[in-house]
Design brief:
This protein is an alpha/beta fold and 235 residues long. It is built from six helices and nine strands. The longest helix is centred in the middle third of the chain and has 29 residues.
Length: 235
């Protein structure tokens, strides 16, 4: 029996998403990678689906691609997300709509379709990337929309884990601190490092390793795994 899994990764064109795709492929797993704009792949075990994850039709195309190309869905990595730090009263209606569209609508449509397929198989794993700001608010990084949406995803992770515990489906989340990725300009790194008790930013590999751990941990479900340099513990 093949141990190769079929993994969907959203927000896969750069940063943590792109590194996650590489890591799963390096282990011989087949991957469906989605981003708003993502180049076609000549790797027969990597299918790319371009589209806005907030659109239900994109979710349908991702799932159909996984099934038509690879026949099943074993793991969904909900990595796509928008982070927007602003004082609360400065958020516009457009900001609110944009963050909800990606962080909540994007999670809802693809996760619902993936779980329906996993339930039919009797196995599967969902892992969602959230943020440690949910647990450790910081006046220097006002970001209520991140807490509103990603906090909801943390809660949904536990709720889904319990709802599907007896079906063979596990549901977990990774809650990062501030990670060295294309989201943060190099000149900001020194100041961002200071937010973490460990005194440094995280690497993209730290998050990828956490995703891989959860994906290979059959007795772990409903877990919010903080990979945040100690931020969630305090300061």
């Amino acid at each position: 029996m093949s141990t190769s899994k079929v993994v969907i990764v959203t927000g896969a064109s750069q940063g943590i998403g792109a590194e996650t795709v590489k890591a799963f492929r390096a282990r011989g797993h087949r991957v469906v990678a989605n981003a708003r704009s993502i180049a076609p792949s000549d790797d027969r075990d990597l299918a790319t689906v371009a589209g806005d994850i907030g659109d239900p039709e994109t979710a349908t195309r991702i799932v159909e691609t996984a099934l038509s190309r690879f026949g099943r869905i074993d793991t969904l990595v909900n990595n796509a997300g928008i982070f927007m730090a602003k004082p609360f009263t400065r958020y516009s209606a457009e900001d609110y709509a944009a963050v909800n569209r990606v962080n909540l609508d994007g999670f809802f449509h693809i996760t619902q379709q993936a779980i329906a397929r996993m339930e039919a198989q009797g196995s599967g794993h969902i892992v969602t990337i959230t943020t440690t700001l949910v647990d450790q608010a910081n006046s220097q990084v006002p970001s209520v929309l991140a807490s509103l949406t990603k906090g909801g995803l943390n809660a949904a992770t536990k709720s889904l884990a319990i709802e599907y515990a007896k079906t063979g489906i596990r549901v977990n989340a990774v809650s990062p601190g501030i990670i060295k990725s294309p989201m943060h300009a190099p000149e900001t790194h020194a100041s961002l490092a200071a937010f973490h008790p460990l005194g440094r930013m995280g690497e993209m590999s730290d998050i990828v390793d956490a995703i891989l751990y959860l994906d290979g941990a059959p007795f772990v479900t409903g877990e919010i795994l903080h990979v945040d340099g100690g931020q969630s513990a305090g300061h």
